[in-house]
Design goal:
about 230 residues; alpha/beta; Ribosomal Protein L25, Chain P; Alpha/beta knot; 2 domains; 12 strands; elongated; EC 2.1.1.193; rRNA (uridine-N3-)-methyltransferase activity
Length: about 230
């Protein structure tokens, strides 16, 4: 299967962007009449045929469309502080996309060691992971956001914060209501500060535990991603 990503697909005039076209023609050496599969990142999966191969703008026609392909029964949003080593964040984004995630927000916290991200670069990690895992939905990557702004978000969801401080905590398994929306906060390598935790609790977040081990930021975020997906399959 040759799968391509066309986020701005218009079925009246179908073509691949330059990056996808170059891969299609220069790398895979596909030709006119070859059959391809195309996703738009919005849930549509297209069975198509190349009509005009071009390394800058390959055109195709849609033969068949599957809507809401692989639609999940829940919505998962993870807000995570970027790691000092950006490759660790990229690893999380790639693996979470493959497992299943709908929205990712990099957050700026009081103890954040990394305060700048390359949004375009991180998006380029997501796209091949979407194609690798044969998904028709492309996760939304938000800009770097102050934690204080996110805490005030009144989105109707189960809202959880994971941290290493002492105190009463529950596991995701104990509190998850299946087939709902979820927002999980994962802090920086220095953890959330006590004032940040208190503010989260005041805004309806519940403290969760991700097990007895002390996890790295990217590992904690992936563990939360896995648990939510697993529990929604039961």
């Amino acid at each position: 299967m040759y799968l391509f990503y066309a986020p701005d697909l218009n079925t009246a005039d179908c073509f691949l962007n330059e990056e996808e076209s170059r891969h299609c023609i220069k790398v895979l050496r596909l030709q006119k009449e070859d059959v391809i599969e195309v996703i738009d990142g919005k849930g549509n999966f297209y069975h198509a045929k190349i009509t005009a191969p071009d390394p800058k703008k390959t055109r195709f026609v849609v033969l068949q469309t599957q809507q809401e392909f692989g639609k999940r029964n829940h919505y998962l949003h993870i807000a995570v502080a970027p790691t000092k080593n950006i490759e660790r964040l990229e690893w999380f984004i790639e693996k979470a996309t493959e497992i299943g995630i709908d929205e990712i927000t990099p957050i700026l916290c009081q103890r954040s060691e990394r305060k700048i991200i390359n949004h375009e670069r991180l998006n380029k990690v997501i796209t091949p992971a979407v194609k690798q895992s044969l998904k028709a939905y492309h996760p939304q990557l938000n800009p770097l956001t102050n934690l204080s702004s996110l805490l005030k978000d009144q989105t109707q969801a189960q809202k959880w914060i994971a941290h290493c401080n002492d105190g009463e905590k529950v596991s995701i398994k104990e509190v998850l209501i299946p087939q709902k929306k979820y927002l999980v906060l994962i802090g920086p390598e220095g953890d959330f500060s006590p004032p940040e935790i208190n503010t989260a609790l005041e805004n309806g977040f519940q403290t969760i535990t991700l097990g007895n081990s002390r996890l790295r930021t990217e590992t904690a975020a992936l563990e939360a991603c896995f648990e939510v997906n697993f529990l929604n399959r039961l």
